[in-house]
């Protein structure tokens, strides 16, 4: 369990488990470079799988519930002010539960809780105002689920809830302080993942967890306007229930988690969007099962003086022409463009914001490449470009196939 800390640039982590019978009750601070053990003599009882969130208005970290000794769900509420822990709220509120999630609502200065396993109605949303827990009567609800994740979305001023429940769910919900609404974009079907708000972008980062086919291998970004975006950058090894919170030099810190062998990890990672990289937008679409995937090759140098190397792979039939649409990434948006009734088909750059349409070089009937030399001028640093491929086969010229989009951010030399 982890959250932002009252101490700027740091993350606070509490508790956890080494194995099924060894629970922890220590408090650690991390700034991305060093770890520091808190020397507070009062601490919550040992536990794992509780929920934590940072209340920025009151400058305290809020901890609720979790599994204690004997795998017993707990119902206590604690706060940490950067120096010491204090038990709050007595035994009233959401009740005994674990594998739930909490997030801080920055617009209304309350901590929001939902889901989990334990006592009481688990499909009810709760709010903590620093002194009392309140059950919130909403018209709609994400329902009963555990191993879910929640985070604040600055761009929409709402709380995002995603995934959870055995097998992993792909639906996402937004809470505006009054009601829940389901977002139209489906994310990765995952449980046991972790989410945190991205500093300065108003988006949310999701890492870790398990899908029906295995561990989640990529990092994902949620944008309320664009939906779920898959990061093309290398990600930490798949893991269940890692801890994730904003902190460090300029990004988000990830620590620990467990692998498929129930082995606890002790590695520390930092995510920062100031580095160059690419995000995959949506998915490809076409008719009769034909699809196309656009990606940057692993050795692509997305920096001044480097080379943008794009690859298009076609599935379901050969193509005779591949055109790459290149546009201004500042104006990326999701534009519905249904092909043969495919409602998930989108164009990602308005026509008026396109910079160029460039033919790619065919390398066989199912692959094409485009290599673009990048200017050596350092002013390219921070520039964002949106790209998308249009594939056409001579046998079906009126039935083009669109690839997913790519949002590419360039760095300095």
Index terms:
elongated; 413 residues; 40 strands; Neuraminidase; mainly beta
Question: Overview of this structure, please?
Answer:
The chain is an all-beta fold and 413 residues long. It has two domains: 272 residues, Neuraminidase (6 Propeller), CATH 2.120.10.80; 131 residues, Macroglobulin (MG2) domain (Immunoglobulin-like, Sandwich). The chain has no helices and 40 strands. Strands 21-22-25-26-30-40-39-33-36 form a nine-stranded antiparallel beta sheet, with no helix packed on it. The chain has a four-stranded antiparallel beta sheet with strand order 1-2-5-6, with no helix packed on it. The mean pLDDT is 89.
Silhouette: elongated
For this structure, the CATH topology of the largest domain is Neuraminidase
Computed structural class: mainly beta
CATH classification class of the largest domain: Mainly Beta
The H-level CATH homologous superfamily of the largest domain, spelled out, is Kelch-type beta propeller
Alpha-carbon distance between the termini? Answer: 38 Å
Largest sheet: 9 strands, antiparallel
- Spatially, the strands of the biggest sheet line up as 21-22-25-26-30-40-39-33-36
The total domain count is: 2
The second-level CATH architecture of the largest domain is 6 Propeller
User: Can you count the helices?
Assistant: 0
**Poorly predicted runs:** none
Cα-atom radius of gyration: 23 Å
Strand content: 35-45%
Number of strands: 40
The whole-number mean of residue pLDDT values reads 89
Helix amount, in percent?
under 10%
């Amino acid at each position: 369990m982890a959250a932002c800390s009252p101490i700027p640039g740091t993350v606070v982590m509490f508790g956890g488990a080494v194995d099924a019978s060894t629970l922890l009750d220590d408090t650690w601070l991390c700034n991305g470079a060093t770890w520091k053990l808190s020397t507070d003599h009062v601490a919550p009882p040992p536990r794992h799988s509780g929920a934590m969130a940072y209340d920025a208005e009151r400058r305290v970290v809020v901890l609720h519930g979790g599994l204690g000794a004997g795998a017993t769900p707990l119902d206590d509420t604690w706060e940490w002010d950067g120096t010491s822990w204090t038990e709050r709220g007595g035994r009233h509120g959401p009740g005994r539960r674990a594998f739930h999630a909490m997030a801080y609502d920055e617009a209304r200065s309350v901590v929001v809780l939902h889901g989990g396993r334990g006592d009481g109605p688990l499909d009810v949303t709760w709010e903590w105002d620093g002194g009392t827990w309140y059950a919130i009567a909403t018209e709609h609800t994400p329902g009963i689920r555990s191993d879910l994740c929640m985070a604040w979305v600055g761009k929409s001023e709402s709380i995002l809830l995603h995934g959870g429940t055995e097998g992993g769910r792909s639906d996402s919900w937004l809470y505006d302080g009054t009601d829940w609404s389901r977002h139209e974009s489906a994310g990765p079907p995952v449980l046991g993942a972790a989410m945190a708000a991205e500093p300065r972008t108003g988006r949310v980062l999701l890492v870790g967890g398990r899908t029906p086919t295995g561990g989640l291998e990529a990092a994902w970004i949620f944008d309320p306007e664009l939906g779920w975006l898959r990061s093309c950058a290398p990600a930490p090894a798949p893991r269940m229930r890692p801890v994730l919170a904003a902190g460090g030099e300029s990004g988000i810190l990830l620590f620990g988690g467990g692998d498929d062998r129930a082995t606890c990890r002790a590695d520390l990672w930092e995510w920062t969007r100031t580095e160059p990289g690419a995000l995959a937008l949506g998915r490809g679409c076409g008719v009769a099962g034909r699809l196309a995937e656009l990606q940057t090759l692993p050795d692509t140098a997305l920096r001044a003086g480097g080379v943008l190397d794009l690859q298009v792979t076609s599935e379901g039939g050969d193509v005779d022409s591949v055109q790459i649409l290149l546009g201004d990434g500042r104006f990326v948006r999701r534009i519905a463009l249904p092909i043969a009734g495919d409602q998930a088909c989108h164009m990602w750059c308005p026509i008026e914001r396109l910079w160029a349409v460039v033919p790619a070089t065919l390398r066989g009937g199912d692959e094409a490449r485009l290599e673009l030399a990048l200017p050596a001028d350092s002013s390219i640093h921070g520039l964002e470009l949106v790209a998308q491929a249009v594939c056409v086969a001579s046998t079906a010229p009126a039935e083009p196939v669109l690839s997913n989009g790519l949002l590419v951010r360039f760095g300095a030399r």
